[in-house]
Amino acid sequence: MEILGYLSAIIIGLVMGLIGGGGSILSVPIFVYVFGFDAVTATALSLFVVGVTSSVGSVGFIRQGQINYRTAFTFGIPSILGVLFSRRLVLPHLPHYIINRWGITLTKDMFLLLLFSILMLIASVKMIQKNERPRLRKYDEVNYTLLVSQGLLVGIITGLIGAGGGFLIVPALVMLLGLTMKRAVATSLFIISMNSLLGFLSTMKMVKHDWGFLLVFSALSVLGIFIGLGLSKKMDGRKLKPLFGWIVLAMGLFIIIKEIFLKQQF
Fold first, then answer.
1. CB atoms within 10 A of CB 172
2. How does DSSP assign 79-119, residue by residue?
3. Which of 148, 159, 168, 199 has the least CB density, counted as fewest CB within 10 Å?
4. Which residue range is the domain that position 8 belongs to?
5. pTM of the entire structure?
6. How far apart are CA 25 and CA 22, in angstroms?
7. Which residues contact 152 (CB under 8 A, 6 or more apart)?
8. Distance of alpha carbon 111 from the chain centroid
9. What DSSP element (H or E) covers 198?
């Protein structure tokens, strides 16, 4: 099983290189169900892996001049505030038992995983849908209030469940600002790297880390993103989104079934 987990690290990077996000959607379930980490630790490890991988992926786009820095910081700063809010104020104060009455038991770990699975289902629907809204034309007015509020929302999600939010960021940049897909992916990776690494650093002392394992897993993920970025030059990542969406949908349903139905039997 662990070999499968390490191989999946390459897939995480591959997906991020192709579609500009989606790494955390795979990494959190892998850390929980393959390597046996609790949900809080899994989200922290996911933030590190996704942060390192997206940072490395951003380097090439920086050299190419593909990152829209004004957008990155307009979206990214509120997003960082959302991450810090979740990691420092919300997560540490969640009780071990969210619900423990009327024959219903909902622990903190179960709550986070179920919240994560709901996010996976939403992400899968967005990925499977083929109809996309057209990009803004140059003379359309940019709604910066909406952009900032969406950045804050992505940050809260990132901090709470370790999801980088690439599947939310890329469509937002394309539809709200009219960026091309390539510039949106590049800017998304830059934003994800800031969010994820700061989210990890903000709670680094609150969870235990096996640095050897974490560095090996991250190195494999970085290898994957190089492969993904190479493939992205030859194929359109948007064409792969529906397939990845079905995989995410299946994983989300698996988490819900396991956490709600299977655990209640033991």
1. 22
2. HHHHHHIIIIIIGGGS-SEEEEETTEEEEHHHHHHHHHHHH
3. 148
4. 2-265
5. 0.74
6. 5
7. 78, 79, 81, 82
8. 18
9. helix 181-202
Residue 256 to residues 42, 129, 216, 237, 240, Cα–Cα distance (Å):
17, 22, 29, 28, 25
Average pLDDT on 257-261 reads 76
Tokens of 217: 């897993």
- Tell whether the model's pLDDT for residue 207 goes beyond 50: yes
Tell me the per-residue pLDDT of 235-250, one tens digit each, with 9 for 90 and over: 665 666 677 778 778 8
Q: How many CB atoms lie within 10 A of CB 230?
A: 13
pLDDT at 132: 52
Residue that is written with structure tokens 């990542």 in the block: 237
136 φψ region: left (φ > 0), alpha (ψ -120 to 50), beta (else): beta
pLDDT of residue 265: 47
Smallest CA-to-CA distance from 17 within 191, 221, 155 is with 221
Q: 134: which 2 tokens?
A: 């057209």
Task: Please tell me the total count of domains within the chain.
Answer: 1
Separation between Cα atoms, residue 88 and residue 243, nearest integer Å: 36
- Rounded-to-integer distance, Cα 163 and Cα 146, Å: 20
Q: Which residues are 101's β-sheet partners? A: 104
Q: Using an 8 Å Cβ cutoff, are 17 and 57 in contact? A: yes
Q: What is the residue whose two structure tokens read 């290898």?
A: 223
